[in-house]
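Standup, Tuesday
Yesterday: got the pipeline producing structure tokens again.
Today: sanity-check two examples.
Blockers: none.

Example 1:
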Amino acid sequence: MNESKPTRPRQQAVQTVAELVRQIIALIVVGVAVPVLAINRYSQAEQYNFGYLVLAGSGVILIFLAGSTAMKLPAARKLDREGILTDGVIIDKWKSRGGFSSYHNLGYRYGEKNTYSAYQQVRNRTFRSFALLDKVKVRHLPNDPDASRLELG
């Protein structure tokens, strides 16, 4: 009998409002601080230094990222207001790397007959606390079941 591993969920979970706000604040703080420091150092430099201009430009990129993160807030708020709780099950666990970061992901299924699946990035401690086939609570929108997140706390 040829049993293949189920495919890994492709739908990412909706982050909480608190997670998004923390990300936005961090991006804005760094996005403002980096160019201010770079411009301050550049103005004090005795010669032209391209590195300071690159740092200033990176601040603009960080502010842009804060704006794109802020665009996720309406979906998070809608899930908080209109989402319903249902039973789910952990179907996969994996770690991934991106740039200088390591991510811990939990894949889960939920809905009637476990029809829907998604994954959520979680902290290492949360990742270690779950095993495959553990039961979980999932919040999702009744009219858009792909919008979901694990209820972890």
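Example 2:
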Amino acid sequence: MTREIDIQYSIRTFLEGLGVACYSLSQGRHTRQSAGLPDLYLLHPKLGGIWLEIKAPNGRRSGAQVVFHDRCERSAVKHLFVSSLEPIRQLCINAGLISDVSRERSTDAGLGKGASPLR
């Protein structure tokens, strides 16, 4: 079973390797922090600012987390719920931070033996 903390670690490691500033707000115990505040806040010139709530694959969203998400949507603020690295990887591809290697491989594979792509 994949734990939320393991998912968060893989996401942070991946993003920080791309130069994305990751601010952790996750709390392991009850605090005076506002209920519903997401686990990470991301900043990067190509991504802008993004609130990131990380859930285990079978994790549930609390009422406060849903309210925060809705408020972000109504205010045009980026907020994502994720339970794996894949949506973050796709976000980085879409923003031009990384290339889609799987797409490049399938394109190159269709060229035939000995052919090379024109670049």
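Quick observation on example 2: Strands lie at 21-24, 40-44, 48-54, 78-82. The domain at 4-109 is CATH 3.40.1350.10 (Trna Endonuclease; Chain: A, domain 1).
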